[in-house]
Design a protein that fits this description.
This protein has 519 residues and is an alpha+beta fold. The protein is 34% helix and 24% strand.
Length: 519
């Protein structure tokens, strides 16, 4: 980890709202709203297409810390893939089976996914399936303010998303908006939003995976000529459709054969999809699915019928690549992140020097499994609830417990097996800055100025071959989200946060040593 950086809140003001009149801020707010339309920073709502929420100004991130977490992303990609691999000895449990068995006893969602993982593992051992995969991951961080000095910070990893790592299509739009606003001359200097090419990088990795399927996975002996397609697995009435469609368009345009991208819900797939005799996934009796890209499937409500669970199993075991595979989805559960914090665990999958760099960002995490260790963690949190976060295994935002809600939930589960399905993490207290959240169809008012805190996400892509070995591994851009400091959880689609972009807060510290790229 690089030396701690002085946070941007103490740096010379780059975008100082206090220097601007209400007339100027109202003008910039209106210009930002117009720029959002020009750059398609949009959501779908019940009333039609609406502007996605975003900050008026880009937010400061310490440059050396930013570069450090970018540098370690390939190591994180490799780590999460390696720990997800099945055991090739049927008498031995894999790492995921060992670590998630206690969670599965009290968390039915984890149990269902683990059942599919075990069936896929058995199919691999029997030569009926394989370990080929495409992982699109996002590692999320916040700056933790040091107790010793309120101005010194370092990155702490909040979580690793292995399913539905969204906003690839919108984050570049917000960067362009911030560049435009920053260059209008109201701050005495031009904007310093760093380049962010996540849409190109991620669509390139998807096309690489498609070509790997074409060249290495196509079964021998098929006589029909089904059209090969990519399927985005989506929710009914998906609000984030603009973001998803931008990625779909980039994939189709980048692919030399112009692959068709379809959108299907889980229920639609269950109705018209199946695995055929050659283990291809056939859809509508005319399409051979090359790749499933999941923008749903991460909470129980996304599987409304038993048929949805059955089709997820068929998808995972079929020849089609799944992004994520059930193995990668399980690897992203909070329990795995907590286990990786225990001494020696990361080192099982990465060389020691590489592991140390990844570990440098870890926040303190605690198991709540039944026993003395879990009891001690519960006692610790109940004695000081403000400094902890209680997390279930679910993704999607707005699922965590803080303060009084944490106390109530811990008291509810502390004598129940349900406690095994939660983990406890130290609470991160990042520095705040003044900003304005720009919302659709709403004029500026002075009350819109608020203190915001930011969360940085680093995208990464990993492709593995049929035997699980690495074919491609890269850092694939970044995402910044911010929220009013009065909000706890920060999901944008959940309505608690907004899009943002990075502005470097420069440091006088020496450069970070070259990272292990994992390539």
């Amino acid at each position: 980890m690089p030396k701690k950086d002085c946070c941007a809140v103490t740096s010379p003001a780059f975008h100082d709202l206090s220097t601007l009149s209400d007339d100027t801020l109202s003008f910039l707010y209106s210009e930002a709203q117009s720029s959002a339309i020009n750059n398609s920073a949009l959501f779908k709502s019940d009333s039609g297409i609406t502007q996605a929420p975003f900050t008026l100004l880009s937010s400061p991130v310490a440059e050396s810390q930013f570069k450090f977490v970018c540098d370690i992303q390939c190591s994180i990609n490799k780590l999460y893939h390696e720990l997800s691999l099945p055991s090739m000895d049927h008498s031995k449990q894999s790492f995921l089976e060992q670590q998630l068995s206690s969670v599965a006893k009290s968390d039915d969602f984890t149990r269902r996914l683990l059942d599919i993982y075990r069936k896929k593992s058995q199919a691999i051992r029997e030569g009926k399936s394989y370990n080929a995969s495409l992982g699109i991951f996002r590692s999320d961080y916040m700056m933790q303010t040091s107790e010793a000095a309120q101005t010194c910070c370092e990155m702490r990893q909040i979580e690793v998303n292995t399913i539905s790592a969204s906003f690839v299509g919108l984050t570049e739009s917000v960067g362009r908006i911030h560049t435009y606003i920053g260059n209008m001359g109201h701050f005495g200097h031009k904007s310093e939003v760093p380049p962010n090419h996540c849409l190109d990088a991620i669509s390139d990795s998807v096309v690489r995976a498609i070509n790997y399927y074409r060249n290495a996975i196509t079964p021998v002996g098929t006589t029909d000529h089904l059209e090969r397609v990519v399927v985005f697995v989506v929710l009914p009435d998906e609000p984030n459709v603009v973001d998803q469609n931008r990625l779909a368009e980039a994939i189709s345009c980048r692919d030399h054969l112009g692959v068709k991208v379809l959108r299907r819900t889980m229920e639609q797939l269950a109705a018209t999809g199946k695995r055929d005799l050659w283990h291809r996934f056939v859809l509508d009796s005319k399409y051979e699915v090359v790749l499933f890209y999941f923008r749903s499937g991460y909470i129980p409500q996304h599987y409304p019928t038993e048929a949805c669970w059955k089709i997820r199993e068929e998808m995972d075991i079929s020849l089609a690549l799944s992004c994520p595979s059930v193995a990668h989805q399980l690897a992203g559960l909070k329990k795995i992140q907590q286990v990786l914090c225990t001494p020696g665990t990361v080192e099982r999958f990465l060389p020691s020097q590489e592991a140390a760099r990844v570990r440098a960002t870890f926040a303190k995490q605690y198991s709540l499994d039944a026993g003395a260790e879990g009891d001690k963690a519960i006692e610790l949190a109940l004695g000081d609830p403000h400094n902890f976060v209680l997390k279930p295994q679910l993704e999607g935002g707005a699922n965590n417990f803080y303060d009084d809600e944490l106390v109530a939930k811990l008291n509810q589960i502390k004598d129940s097996p349900e406690r095994d399905s939660f983990i406890l993490m130290e609470r991160i207290f990042p520095p705040s800055t003044k900003n304005i959240i720009v919302k659709s169809s709403k004029p500026y008012s002075r009350e819109d100025i608020c203190d915001v805190i930011s969360e940085l996400g680093i995208y990464g892509c990993h492709i593995s071959s049929v035997d699980g070995s690495q074919l491609h591994n890269d850092m694939s851009g970044h995402l910044l989200r911010s929220k009013d400091i009065r909000q706890s959880d920060g999901g944008i689609v959940a309505g608690n946060a907004c899009l943002d972009s990075v502005r470097f807060a420069h440091s006088s510290h020496p450069p970070i040593p070259a990272a292990a790229t994992g390539k």
